[in-house]
């Protein structure tokens, strides 16, 4: 494994659509950039925390991996369907009140039930970092760098939503239905 393959893996996993990225896009569309960034900060802190936990407890977690992954998969599936339903039924009127679900805390908690993030954080350190260098400084620096890549991905989704907000708002109900369908599809794909 080399640095190039690590970076390619990180960029593909963090920039491609997943539950957090889809919620960020929906949040920008429905609640604005400021709320989306608040959610993004929470998601980033949790993403970094999950990477740190993975790096420190990797050996112990591998023993319990199948059980942890199944539980997270079930919780994640239920949560993604819940989010899809919330996005689908979101009020699309111009006077829609600001929803309090797009907070730092909700972004933070989303990462702990996001199967894509759980799988990524459990695999990236042992697969790409530890075989090259298992020293604490190298693992810490890698976890920090990967967290920055994740933050960049989240901010990219915020920017995408902000740039295309006028178009997205003109077709808000259709966009919400499409986002809800993508989120539901992501929940189904977990089991394939």
Automatic annotation (TrEMBL):
Location in the cell: Cell membrane
Main location class: membrane
Membrane topology of the entry: Multi-pass membrane protein
Keyword match Membrane: yes
GO molecular function terms listed in the Swiss-Prot or TrEMBL record: amino acid transmembrane transporter activity
Entry keyword set: Cell membrane, Membrane, Transmembrane, Transmembrane helix
Source species, domain of life: Bacteria
Keyword rRNA processing: no
Segments traversing the membrane: 6-28, 40-62, 68-88, 108-129, 141-163, 175-191
A GO biological process held by the record: cysteine export across plasma membrane
Gene Ontology cellular component terms for the protein in this record: plasma membrane
Listed name of the protein: LysE family translocator
Entries under Pfam families matching the protein: LysE
